Amino acid sequence: MYASKLYSWKFIVPAFLLFFVLFLVPNLMGFYYSLTNWNAMSDQVKFIGLDNFIEVFTDKSNFRFIYNTLMFAIVTSILKAVIGLGLALMLNEGVKSKNYLRTIFFMPVVISNLIVGLIFQQIYNPDTGILNGFLEAIGLGAFSQSWIGDPKLAIWSSMGVEIWKASGFNMVIFLAGLQMVPKDMYEAADMDGANYWNKLIKVTIPFLIPSITINMMLNVISGLKVFDVIFALTNGGPGRASEVINLTIFNQFGLGTYGYGTALGVILFLFLAVISIGLVKIFTRPEVSGR
Amino acid sequence: MTRRTATINGLKEISMWILSLVILVPIAMLLLNSVKNVTESAAMSLKLPTSFHFDNFITVFKDGKIFSSFGNSLLISSVTSVITIITSSMAAFVMTRNRTRLYRYVYILFLIGLIVPMNYITTMKVLQMLHMINTFTGIILLYSATFIPFTVFLFYGFVGGIPKELDESAVIDGCGGSGLFFRVIFPLMKPVSVTALIINFLNCWNDFVLPLYFLNSSSKWGMIMTMYNYFSQYISSWNLVSAAMLINLVPILTVYVLGQKYIISGMTAGAVKG
């Protein structure tokens, strides 16, 4: 009685109501509408079963964006974590100007994706962009590319932008994790004559498992949901070569094929649910969690 | 040995500064091109401008709807942040204090909101049903709904650390439920509130996906959308586009440099707590 009066359930209502009406309800509605032919042309919404899903997975031109989304999520997740770890290890201690450097490396995280994408459009420009200019200047002109004009390369160039933008985020998570490693572990390892690599593999990494988990989870989630960077950089082009699922959804929204677009939303939802549950299970096995 | 460590640290320092150019050069490119003339900025290079055209900024200020869109961004971002912080902290407080199974499930529901994507198309339908499509109210409440899961998560970890004995003594002093929260607990959560404020504010300021879907009238756009519109309009005048981008970036980077400590503590909250 005392607690229920003091910690009233009413306190939860505003947050839950907002979240429920504007986030959960649309997601639940998505499950229903993905089974219909809902579109902008007709007023009637007809139940059509799994037709939308069958269309998604049988239309061969769709394989490209499914492949792109998955590759984008996998490659950027790994590289952002590896680069972030490298930066964190370098800037953990010893370097005098480490605070300035950390500020610089984290900075892209707070810049709007739209601005980043548009700037990289210029950087990747085959004739005037500074990337090809740099390659020529150091004598690697042979490697100059039409970074976002080449259909095979465009999605990889988009990954580059994402890695540029978000490695600093992984860095700060790893830096926080590195503060949890007890100093005496290193002293003990030194006593045993361990070198840098031994200490990294045997001491540092095991303590960083929670940070690796959270980074990989957040990286995979944001990788699968990617939209703005690609929208601003290539808008899915050339053609549909660098399209990802959220961009397809946006295009379907523009075309008015809502039922089909909603089905794609549901697929993304299921992907994310399965992958994040899987990742949590893998990384929180009791013997490696360190907790 | 110490001399060797000093050398290694020196080398580390130099190599990291060289590496930082990867981040700094694109920014420098933007700065340089914002003061060039049209022909020079056509090729976004790192060449120094032959003459400085600070008038680019004046042109942008005069002709883009910078001021009104700045006001819109400020309105949307600040109201969203305030709503999010108040509602989330209240919810987190009650959920940490009442450890029943029901509250646990509600918390998990919020956490799911951190992971699963928003369904844009059906969200449009809901907004239409509520007559909130294309309105400030609609976009603000929508942003709040998307930021609530993260903010609840942030507060949840923090409130747990405030001792329950404090509640009891507040009750003895005559506080009721809301008095306890708003006069005793909420002021104690200042650090995490500042963190939530800055992160939500920045996310809101930088976002352009929700306006792309849900705000059609350009008079309600924030700075990012206006800048994007400006870009499509002046696609061949990169000097003006660069200037517009910088006008966008300055407030963000100022907030970042001043509030860095809070941003990073918020973003690492998840990692530290596992």
Layout of helices and strands:
The complex is a heterodimer of chains A (291) and B (274).
Chain A: H1 2-6, H2 13-33, H3 51-58, H4 63-91, H5 98-110, H6 113-123, H7 130-137, H8 154-178, H9 183-191, H10 196-224, H11 228-233, H12 245-255, H13 258-283, H14 286-289
Helix pairs in contact in A: 2-13, 4-8, 4-10, 5-8, 8-10, 10-13, 12-13
Chain B: H1 2-34, H2 38-42, H3 55-63, H4 66-97, H5 101-115, H6 120-129, H7 136-159, H8 164-172, H9 177-188, H10 190-206, H11 209-214, H12 223-233, H13 238-273
What is the C-alpha radius of gyration of chain B, as a whole number of Å? 23 Å
Q: CATH superfamily membership of the largest domain in chain B, which one?
A: MetI-like
The backbone outline of chain B, from C-alpha atoms, is globular
The stretches of 5 or more residues of chain A where confidence is low (pLDDT under 50) are 287-291
What is the chain-wise order of helices and strands of chain B?
A: HHHHHHHHHHHHH
Q: Summarize the main sheet of chain B.
A: none
Q: Helices and strands of chain B: which structural class?
A: mainly alpha
Oligomeric grouping of the chains: heterodimer
Return residue spans of chain B where pLDDT drops below 50 for at least 5 consecutive residues.
none
| Alpha-carbon distance between the two ends of chain A | 36 Å
What number of structural domains do the residues of chain B give? 2
Series of H and E elements of chain A: HHHHHHHHHHHHHH
Shape of chain A: globular
Strand content of chain A: under 5%
Q: Strand tally of chain B, please?
A: 0
| Relevant CATH superfamily of the domain at 59-255 in chain A | MetI-like
Query: At the first level of CATH, what is the class of the domain at 59-255 in chain A?
Result: Mainly Alpha
The class by helix and strand makeup of chain A works out as: mainly alpha
Strand content of chain B: under 5%
Question: What is the second-level CATH architecture of the domain at 59-255 in chain A?
Answer: Orthogonal Bundle
Helix count of chain A equals: 14
